[in-house]
Write a structure and sequence with these properties.
The chain has 218 residues and is an alpha/beta fold. The protein folds into two domains: 180 residues, Rossmann fold (3-Layer(aba) Sandwich), CATH 3.40.50.1820; 36 residues, no CATH class. Helix content is 26%, strand content 23%. The chain contains six helices and eleven strands. Strands 2-1-3-4-5-6 form a six-stranded parallel sheet, with helices on both faces. The longest helix is centred in the last third of the chain and has 12 residues. The two termini are 24 Å apart. The C terminus is likely disordered.
Amino acid sequence: MKFIIIHGAYGNPEENWFPWLKEKLEEQGHEVFIPKFPTPENQTLEEWMKVFSAYEVDEKTILIGHSLGVPFILSLLEKFKAKSCFLVAGFCTLPENQFKEGMRTFEKDFDYQKIKDNCRKFYIYHSDNDPYVPLEKGKDLAERLGAKFSLVKDAGHLNEKAGYLQFYKLLADIIREICSELPVLKEDERGKIFDSGKVKIIMRKKGTVSGKHSHSIG
């Protein structure tokens, strides 16, 4: 499966939990791409689209966005189909912060019906003390997309500054999404074992997910 991670304003592919998540997914044999977009100079929707033109999105692609990467993904989904989306600390209408002027080209009247037609499942993650994007922005996004909303308490902007060099909740949800279409090798009272090809993924009934020879989530 292919994953594309979209960073935010003033961001880059090497920050936050992006490298960690890339490594965890690659251990399972997945392709993971993290494009580098111009920011803050030349930070426009048009310029970001030019960078993204080097990548392909299809119905087997999972998109993951952080902050400004979230409305960028919404613009992508007006054009392309994707398997599912994981949207972190994002928004669909601009928040009132010091970065607002540099993000104006990313805000528009999104075609939410088209977006939902092109992607069957959305997961939203937001903190209750985000200093840049208020909690209401995340809830509004989830409502517009009919998405599953996950509140992550005291997590700031869910970035490196807030201590997020790893994001196990996100990884666990991604693995569950992957498992939803994988063949079951074994099932007993403890849970299920899925065959993902390169590794075997064990999903315990209590909610613990682990990949043999790959990773474990407590």
